[in-house]
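Re-run with default settings, no changes from the original entry. Doing this only to confirm the output is reproducible before filing.
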Amino acid sequence: MPNHVHAVVTVPEQTRLCDFVQALKGRSARLANEALGRRGRLWQPDYFDRVVRDEAHFVKVATYVEHNPVTARLAVSASGYAFSSAYPANEAKLVAWAEKRRAEADAP
């Protein structure tokens, strides 16, 4: 999305959501500003959050996020937007990342 971001995240235990968002915005702003050769604010200071209650709610939220570029007429399908988890080239990366995280969580 050219003017906002949707993300479904699991915040690590003992981490406040506001600290997580601040770190995410800070790092991405530094990297974007460096890549663009600019300085200054990249993100607006606020954000909106929702707690995902259960698996059915997760599916609803993930579907909304993945179809948002279609609604905004940036793509004709969710899988046609290169910056989406629905984009086929990103799926294998997401699966590998999730499997690695699961293995790390299960390790003694």
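DSSP finds three helices and no strands in the chain. The chain has a mean pLDDT of 88.
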